[in-house]
């Protein structure tokens, strides 16, 4: 599932360049020219990361970043600020507004994509292409393969995403609602009991490979991936 990146940039030429580079890197590009359009895209598509220009009409990028951090739905969405301002005080102001990183124009596409991937690795490990190893399992997002002791475990696409999320968020308890938001996405409307069905399938596949007890039920709270029995 490709990450969605919202590009908030009012200069058409720069917006097109950013859309091109983001799309070429395999991400889904969303676009907005001002704060109002940005909020509409956020409501409709729930982006995974926001590229935010400092200088926007009506509402500045700094003000918008502060607003995003004050809203429950967007407070954890990574923000990279784009600006022509290179002064250290401006950089500090951008970061204090809630931005996770700051890139000064002009920048190379290679630098931009490196910054995007670095921020995503920190904030959204399930969108990283890095291999994950835990509890005797090794999961590769690029090959879509899970192995245990060198043997491949066959998983459906939803069970794969579910396991990837669990392995990158080990020892934490997640409710069914949280798992639906994180694994299925906020734009997909399915019943909470759907989570139970896929948990059972995932457990069955792991247990068939001799891996018991990794997916734990926490009564009244949800589920947890743990290597501690």
From TrEMBL:
<keyword id="KW-0804">Transcription</keyword>
<keyword id="KW-0813">Transport</keyword>
<dbReference type="Pfam" id="PF00072">
    <property type="entry name" value="Response_reg"/>
</dbReference>
<feature type="domain" description="Response regulatory">
    <location>
        <begin position="4"/>
        <end position="120"/>
    </location>
</feature>
<keyword id="KW-0597">Phosphoprotein</keyword>
<protein>
    <recommendedName>
        <fullName>Phosphate regulon transcriptional regulatory protein PhoB</fullName>
    </recommendedName>
</protein>
<dbReference type="Pfam" id="PF00486">
    <property type="entry name" value="Trans_reg_C"/>
</dbReference>
<feature type="domain" description="OmpR/PhoB-type">
    <location>
        <begin position="129"/>
        <end position="227"/>
    </location>
</feature>
<keyword id="KW-0805">Transcription regulation</keyword>
<keyword id="KW-0963">Cytoplasm</keyword>
<dbReference type="GO" id="GO:0000156">
    <property type="term" value="F:phosphorelay response regulator activity"/>
</dbReference>
<keyword id="KW-0902">Two-component regulatory system</keyword>
<dbReference type="InterPro" id="IPR039420">
    <property type="entry name" value="WalR-like"/>
</dbReference>
<dbReference type="InterPro" id="IPR036388">
    <property type="entry name" value="WH-like_DNA-bd_sf"/>
</dbReference>
<dbReference type="GO" id="GO:0000976">
    <property type="term" value="F:transcription cis-regulatory region binding"/>
</dbReference>
<dbReference type="GO" id="GO:0006817">
    <property type="term" value="P:phosphate ion transport"/>
</dbReference>
<keyword id="KW-0010">Activator</keyword>
<dbReference type="GO" id="GO:0006355">
    <property type="term" value="P:regulation of DNA-templated transcription"/>
</dbReference>
<keyword id="KW-0592">Phosphate transport</keyword>
<dbReference type="InterPro" id="IPR001867">
    <property type="entry name" value="OmpR/PhoB-type_DNA-bd"/>
</dbReference>
<dbReference type="GO" id="GO:0005829">
    <property type="term" value="C:cytosol"/>
</dbReference>
<feature type="modified residue" description="4-aspartylphosphate">
    <location>
        <position position="53"/>
    </location>
</feature>
<keyword id="KW-0238">DNA-binding</keyword>
<dbReference type="InterPro" id="IPR016032">
    <property type="entry name" value="Sig_transdc_resp-reg_C-effctor"/>
</dbReference>
<dbReference type="InterPro" id="IPR011006">
    <property type="entry name" value="CheY-like_superfamily"/>
</dbReference>
<dbReference type="GO" id="GO:0032993">
    <property type="term" value="C:protein-DNA complex"/>
</dbReference>
<dbReference type="InterPro" id="IPR011879">
    <property type="entry name" value="Sig_transdc_resp-reg_PhoB"/>
</dbReference>
<feature type="DNA-binding region" description="OmpR/PhoB-type">
    <location>
        <begin position="129"/>
        <end position="227"/>
    </location>
</feature>
<comment type="function">
    <text>This protein is a positive regulator for the phosphate regulon. Transcription of this operon is positively regulated by PhoB and PhoR when phosphate is limited.</text>
</comment>
<dbReference type="InterPro" id="IPR001789">
    <property type="entry name" value="Sig_transdc_resp-reg_receiver"/>
</dbReference>
